[in-house]
Design a protein that fits this description.
295 residues; mainly alpha; two-stranded antiparallel ribbon; 73% helix
Length: 295
């Protein structure tokens, strides 16, 4: 029973990071109708930049973290202004290919600067376990979970209570209606990319604390796609809930499938079986609209 609860809790923690990164991906899609295939590379570059600031400047983690978020804002603006804004009106497939190219460039930068070997992240949060009565959980996992929830709550409040957030929601509901009301779509697109890059950077730092840094961090972007598709490509709530579902399924699959088969690496595959089964019954995902455009 303790083993099962441990897998569930670890899955919820990892799933909360998936949810946060999925939030950025869904936001870009709702604002621009483009699927960002560079989301994982944004996550990866955020983790490496935070590590570099800590090592080079010797600043405390909190200051380095805030500086990393500033870097992610600048990077998102550069990508949006210099590349994607010029693609406005282009076919969706062309823009998707551009995001794939951006991801390849970011990955090449990481390999060129930091190499392909795994780098341990400085110990920011204590790893000692806390006894919760039924199971012992590492403080690192608890801190990661609480920070993920805090950021998701912050962005939820931003969308609900701020004027910019309301405008973004209106744009996501109907771009044509928002444009007819004088909403500056280019600014909304830029803000969407900024938020997406920031949540990816946060996810990268938290994931780096848990698993260390390597170019394989970009694979977390691939792991986020099942959560986005399962929740409905246009649903922020769906992506948030489905991220946790995917995290739990991945941990349960990795634990029990490994015990049953003796094979390692089956955990990441398990959510895809559930994803296919659910999409077979409900092609738009758990929370997606029936009129969603299929790419």
């Amino acid at each position: 029973m303790d083993y099962f609860l441990g897998l569930i809790i670890n899955g919820i923690v990892v799933g909360s990071i998936y949810s946060m990164v999925a939030l950025g991906l869904v936001l870009i899609y709702k604002a621009t109708e483009v699927v960002n295939f560079a989301q994982g590379e944004l996550l990866m570059i955020g983790a490496y930049i935070c590590l570099e600031i800590i090592q080079v400047t010797g600043m405390p983690f909190l200051v380095s973290f805030l500086m990393t978020m500033g870097f992610m804002v600048i990077l998102a603006l550069a990508i949006e202004r210099l590349v994607l804004r010029r693609m406005m009106g282009a076919p969706a497939l062309a823009v998707i290919m551009v995001t794939i190219g951006i991801g390849i460039i970011l990955r090449a930068v990481v390999l060129g600067v930091w190499g392909a070997t795994s780098i341990p992240f400085p110990e920011v949060f204590p790893r000692q376990g806390i006894d919760l009565g039924v199971v012992t959980v590492s403080q690192l996992y608890l801190w990661s979970f609480m920070l993920s929830l805090a950021f998701m709550a912050m962005f939820g409040a931003f969308f609900k209570f701020t004027r910019v957030g309301l405008v973004m929601r209106a744009t996501a509901s109907s771009r044509k209606a928002a444009e007819s009301m004088g909403v500056p779509l280019t600014k909304i697109f830029a803000i969407a990319w900024i938020i997406s890059a920031v949540v990816s950077g946060v996810g990268g730092v938290l994931t780096g604390n848990i698993a260390g840094l390597s170019p394989e961090l970009s694979f977390y972007g691939v792991k986020v796609f099942p959560a986005v598709i399962l929740g409905g490509l246009d649903s922020i709530v769906g992506a948030t809930i489905s991220g946790v579902i995917i995290g739990v399924l991945e941990n349960l699959g990795g634990g029990y499938l490994k015990d049953l088969t003796g094979l390692h690496g089956l955990g990441p595959v398990a959510p895809f079986f559930i994803l296919v089964a659910i999409l077979w019954v409900r092609p738009t995902g758990l929370f997606g609209r029936k009129d969603i455009e299929k790419l």
